[in-house]
Structures are given as structure tokens and as C-alpha cells.
Amino acid sequence: MFLAVLLDSACVFRWVRQQAPGPQMNTDGQSTSRDLTQDVLLYKDGKLTVKQQVTSLDSESSILLFQYQLNEQLSWIMQTVLSGRSLFVGLPNGELLKGTKEGLTAVLEFAEEKLKINHVFVWFMKNRPDKLLLTRTFSSIAGDLRLMVYTIQQTHTSEE
């Protein structure tokens, strides 16, 4: 599995935030702002549950929801985009909660073993306080890790 970690890419990060906003906290054991009961269950084992959002659009990409149970009262939900043999993951700003490293590991292992993913693209900001921990987590799982640090400058054109 090839894993690319993209740091501080404003345009790509905005796309991921719109398409796959990353982990959302779920502290009451119920659904978050999304109604997860309308999603199709793909996998459930131990602490990891994987669902696919069903849309009326016929698309080559789909949204997968990974829910990882941190403890009896707390879980996080990560929304990702699956396109072909690539999985796109966006991590929000701020440090991840205790136990999230194991959740990320479970997500990446599921992607490789069950979905037969060839490429995983993970976006997070380069000024994260837990950047080293995330990089170590991803490099311990991935056979081939690439760090890409860049900023995309948007050009604005004004209508005359």
C-alpha cells in the first residue's frame, strides 16, 4: 500500500473538508448530525464499524464512514472518500484523542486488507502538535510513505 501524507495544502484540505471532514465526535453512542441508520453496513468487528453512504448519484467514488469505539461512552467517526483503489482521508486540526491512533491503524489495515486499496492520501496541517505521532503511525503501517509539504496558492480572477 502506498501512503501519501500531504501537509498544509489549503485547496486540497478544503476539498477534503467538504468531501470527507474527518473524525467527528460521538459521545452519546447515538448518531451525530448524520443519520447513520440510512447507511449500508459493510463491516463490523470489535471496535471498528464501516458503513457506506448511499447516494442517488451514480458515481465512481463513494463515501465510507469508519466508526471506532474508543471506550464505552466515546467513539469517533471518520468520513473518507473511496475512489477506485484510493482512499482519501482528511484529519481535522487539533490533537486526536487517546485511542485514536489505534483507530487510524484499524482503518488503514481495513483499507488494505478488505478494500484492497493501493493508495491512501491523508491530509493534515503541518503545524499540528501531534504531527510526529501521526507520521510514525502511518509509516509503521504503510510499506511506502511519502511526505509532501507544500502550499497551493489560489489565483483569483476578477470579473470585469
UniProtKB/TrEMBL annotation:
Pfam families in UniProt: ODC_AZ
InterPro entries reported for this sequence: Acyl_CoA_acyltransferase (IPR016181), ODC_AZ (IPR002993), ODC_AZ_sf (IPR038581)
Residues spanning the signal sequence: 1-18
Keyword Glycoprotein in annotation: no
Any one cellular-component term (Gene Ontology): nucleus
GO biological process: positive regulation of protein catabolic process; viral translational frameshifting
GO molecular function terms listed in the Swiss-Prot or TrEMBL record: ornithine decarboxylase inhibitor activity
Keywords, sorted A to Z: Signal
Gene3D superfamilies: 3.40.630.60
Family classification: Belongs to the ODC antizyme family.
Protein name per Swiss-Prot or TrEMBL: Ornithine decarboxylase antizyme 2b
Lineage: Eukaryota, Metazoa, Chordata, Craniata, Vertebrata
